[in-house]
Amino acid sequence: MRLYYLLSILLIISFQGCSTNQITISSKKTLQVETKKESEEDTENFDDEFTQEQDTVKDDPLSGYNRFMTSFNDTLFIYLADPISKGYATVFPEVLRLGISNFIHNIEFPIRFTNTLLQGKLQYSADELERFIANSTLGIGGIFNPASTIMHIPAHNEDFGQTLGYYGVGAGYHVVLPFIGPSNIRDIIGLVGDGYLSPLMYDKALKELRIPQNYLQSAGIYGFKMVNKNALHLGAYESLKKDAIDLYPFLRDIYEQKRTSEIEE
After folding, report:
1. Does this model's pTM top 0.70?
2. How far are the Cα atoms of 23, 176, 248, 249, 251 from residue 245, in angstroms, in the given order?
3. Which of the four pLDDT bands, split at 50, 70 and 90, describes residue 11?
């Protein structure tokens, strides 16, 4: 009888030992599987990041230059353009600054009118023509804006870059222009096209139809236009960039998304 009890105890101990070994082996296998999965996930994440970096380099081959020019423009704005704009705003009241902005917008009517025609947006063209007539007469040469405030005729800021995009021309590489800021290959071509239409840009062949009579005067008018515009929106640039971790891609993405939206309208 004692022998029976002794054998029973030995069998129980042996069974528990086997169970413990099985559990240990099973746990080791589970740990190995989990470790393998984590390793595969880390590898996949690394591959994704590497692929994204390769895509970025491929899509933005001018990133080195663009970063430098973004930093240059940012420094120029902070230490020169913005202080000048603030001093300008102190001297000239807002109503005068707004009148100058209205006048400049009105005189650039040929850009908007031509591009709405090129895109086949005839209602937009009619709106722009009505606005030009109303603001040039009732608005005293465009200083006031009765087309918006009284007649409620919508404005359509179409340019040649948008016209090219409307017909399917791709944006091309992103390019940051000195003094101007974010742009792309398509929009640079658009700037040249609009330059032929703008009375504020000098052109030797069309000298009689232009306000500036040389390139220096043309650059001066552009600088004045930018100062007046910034003086009407003081602090806007600082507010825009305060959330940027990396300024260049932040401004690049905002610009490209904005242009895509404008073309799709």
Report:
1. yes
2. 50, 18, 9, 9, 11
3. very low
